[in-house]
Design brief:
Elements lengths: L3 H32 L6 H31 L5 H30 L16 H74 L3 H22 L8
Helix pairs in contact: 1-2, 1-3, 2-3, 4-5
Length: 230
């Protein structure tokens, strides 16, 4: 970096990061005192409330450091930028883990807090966390309901298609039976005609077979089989 002003800002930022790391170490010490106890006494409840307040302050400082670092990114060398990012990531990881640990103490099944031991302070960060979790659950439920409605719609659509196919099959069967009945009736009429005109028996049988093949093939074709329609 060639700009003296940028060098000064970087030094100040590194000093802020170092101070923040010291605060995180102190908070980890407070957390260690709380996590070693199965129940919360009045003093522990006060310590937990203080720890929550300190986490809010540290969170704001960490956000400010990240904002200042973004303002310096354009003027930093690759090495300086990498070193700064590494320090900030370490602080951020420590902070997030500490928040998680404090939440576990607050909601853990082994913690027993009496009515006279409940702290009178609720951190805004905790309330915001609850609101975010509630919103996430609502959004997840809405997505699930939407997906179920889509699946139900597809099932209904397939059922309707199946009903239409069954109607077509039933109509084809009815038409096929009608054609067969008509062919049988015509065979009888033709047989009667041949008897009256005393045609040779071979001619009668041949004509009868041809007419059966003709009308049966047409009926089966309309019924949905793969025969060639005459």
């Amino acid at each position: 970096m060639s700009d003296t002003n940028d060098n000064q800002k970087l030094d100040e930022l590194n000093a802020d990061i170092q101070a923040l790391r010291g605060q995180l170490v102190d908070l980890q010490g407070k957390h260690g005192k709380l996590s070693g106890s199965d129940t919360l006494g009045s003093g522990d409840a006060e310590l937990l409330a203080s720890l929550r307040q300190d986490l809010v302050v540290v969170g704001k400082k960490l956000a400010k450091i990240k904002e200042d670092a973004r303002g310096l990114e354009g003027s930093l060398s690759m090495i300086a930028k990498h070193d700064l990012t590494k320090k900030i990531d370490h602080c951020s990881t420590t902070y997030q883990q500490l928040r998680k640990n404090v939440t576990a103490i607050r909601t853990g099944p082994a913690v027993e807090v009496g009515l006279d031991q409940v702290p009178d302070y609720v951190a805004p960060e905790f309330l915001q966390e609850l609101a975010e979790k509630k919103q996430e659950k609502i959004e997840t439920l809405a997505i699930t309901v939407k997906q179920m409605n889509q699946i139900q719609g597809r099932i209904t659509e397939k059922l309707d298609e199946g009903a239409e196919i069954m109607d077509d099959v039933e109509n084809g069967i009815v038409r096929a039976h009608g054609n067969i009945d008509r062919s049988v009736s015509r065979m009888k009429l033709f047989q009667t005609y041949l008897k009256r005109n005393k045609a040779p028996i071979a001619c009668c049988l041949l004509s009868f077979i041809i007419m059966i093949i003709f009308w049966s093939s047409k009926a089966f074709c309309e019924w949905g089989l793969t025969w060639q329609c005459p």
